[in-house]
Design brief:
Number of helices: 5
Shape: elongated
CATH class of the largest domain: Alpha Beta
Largest sheet: 3 strands, parallel
CATH superfamily of the largest domain: Skp domain
Radius of gyration: 30 Å
Distance between the termini: 75 Å
Strand content: 5-15%
Structural class: mainly alpha
Number of strands: 3
CATH topology of the largest domain: Protein Binding, DinI Protein, Chain A
CATH architecture of the largest domain: 2-Layer Sandwich
Strand order of the largest sheet: 2-1-3
Order of helices and strands: HEHHHEEH
Helix content: over 70%
C-alpha cells in the first residue's frame, strides 16, 4: 500500500512538473508573426534595378573590349607578338571581369543589408516578434511585403 501511495505521489509530481514546463514553453511563444516575400521586395527595388542595369552596361563594355582585342590580335602578323597580345588582353579581361563581379557583389550585399534593416525597423515599429520569409510559411502570419516594398523603393 505504501508503494502505491509513493508511486501515485511520484506520478502526480511528474505530471505537475510536466504541465509547468509545458505552460512555460507555451507562454514564450511569440504572439505576432509577420511574413515577407523577400524576392518580391528585391525585384521591386529601384536600387536592384539600377544595379542590374549598371552591370549589364559594364558587361556590354567588356564584350566590346573582347571584340576590339580579337580584332587587334587578328591583325598582328607576327606569331610571337600575337601570343603576347593575347596574354595581355586575357589578363586585362580577367582583371576587368573580377572588378565587375567584386563591385556587383559588394553593392548587392549593401542593398541586402539595407533591406534587412528596413524589415527589422518595420517589424519593431509594428511590434512583430518574428518575421519569416513567406516561402517557408504554409499558413498564418501577417503579410507585410507591400509595406516593406514601399519603404525599400
Amino acid at each position: 500500500m505504501k508503494n502505491g501511495v509513493k508511486y501515485l505521489a511520484l506520478t502526480l509530481g511528474a505530471f505537475v512538473i510536466g504541465m509547468s514546463v509545458n505552460n512555460f514553453a507555451v507562454s514564450n511563444v511569440p504572439s505576432k508573426i509577420a511574413v515577407v516575400d523577400v524576392q518580391k521586395v528585391v525585384a521591386s527595388s529601384a536600387q536592384v534595378k539600377s544595379l542590374k542595369a549598371d552591370r549589364e552596361a559594364k558587361i556590354k563594355d567588356l564584350a566590346n573590349f573582347v571584340k576590339t582585342a580579337r580584332e587587334t590580335v587578328a591583325k598582328e602578323p607576327n606569331a610571337a607578338k600575337k601570343k603576347t597580345l593575347e596574354q595581355k588582353y586575357n589578363k586585362e579581361l580577367n582583371a576587368k571581369r573580377n572588378a565587375i563581379q567584386k563591385d556587383y557583389a559588394s553593392k548587392l550585399a549593401a542593398i541586402d543589408k539595407n533591406i534587412s534593416g528596413i524589415i527589422a525597423q518595420k517589424a519593431k515599429a509594428a511590434n512583430y516578434d518574428i518575421v519569416l520569409a513567406k516561402g517557408v510559411v504554409l499558413y498564418g502570419g501577417s503579410d507585410i511585403t507591400s509595406e516593406i516594398a514601399k519603404a525599400v523603393k
